[in-house]
Specification:
Layout lengths: L1 H16 L14 E2 L9 E5 L4 E5 L3 E10 L5 E9 L7 E6 L11 E7 L5 E7 L7 H7 L3 E6 L2 E2 L5 E9 L3 E2 L1 H9 L2 E2 L1
Parallel strand pairs: 1-12, 7-9
Antiparallel strand pairs: 2-3, 3-13, 4-5, 5-6, 6-11, 7-8, 9-11, 10-11
């Protein structure tokens, strides 16, 4: 018993003699950027009726895959993707053959083009949306970031539009939206 107490006493002495000072990391001013997983780990969505396929991260779920018909001639197809692993409400809306609605005042608007191969590319970025009423714009986008695209009238005869929103916080999800957008193929 004395031997055990001696060992315990020596251990406590050595432990208390050591100085443990936690190192603090310096904070950086740059926002955190979401790095998407390898493209081969992403899921693929394809819809031959609307001539589109794209890939998206496995943390996203398609929560709406609907054809809207308002009975007055307004019809369009809409897909909602939501990142269920994230509390910052990361969401992408993709619409086909929309008949118009709005107005919307995004924080950023991308001008898009379709390549000969049916890929989507960003040709210009406009920030903030010109023509928006500053008071209405500020209240509409408060606490989240809203990105929209120009309409694409594709070679396959469909019209396409994208929207991406996320709550403002420490993470910048815009590169993730650009990555998802780059996987779209129109056919």
């Amino acid at each position: 018993m004395k031997k055990l107490l001696s060992i315990l006493g020596i251990s406590l002495f050595l432990f208390s003699a050591c100085s443990f000072t936690p190192q603090q990391e310096e904070e950086e001013d740059t926002p955190v950027v979401v790095v998407p997983p390898a493209e081969d780990a992403w899921l693929t969505y394809s819809n031959p009726a609307y001539g589109v396929s794209f890939q998206y991260p496995p943390s996203f779920e398609i929560t709406e895959d609907v054809r809207y018909d308002y009975g007055d001639g307004m019809k369009w197809f809409r897909i909602d993707l939501i990142d269920n692993s994230n509390l910052e409400l990361v969401k992408m809306i993709f619409e086909v053959d929309l008949d118009g609605y709005g107005p919307f005042f995004p924080d950023t608007r991308y001008e898009l083009e379709e390549t000969e191969e049916g890929k989507i590319i960003i040709t210009d970025e406009i920030t903030p949306n010109p023509g928006a009423d500053p008071e209405e714009y500020a209240s509409y986008t408060e606490n989240y970031t809203h990105i929209m695209t120009s309409l694409i009238e594709a070679k396959n005869g469909h019209i396409y539009n994208w929207q991406f929103t996320f709550e403002e916080g420490e993470v910048d999800y815009e590169p993730l939206f650009q990555e998802i957008l780059s996987t779209f193929t129109l056919y």
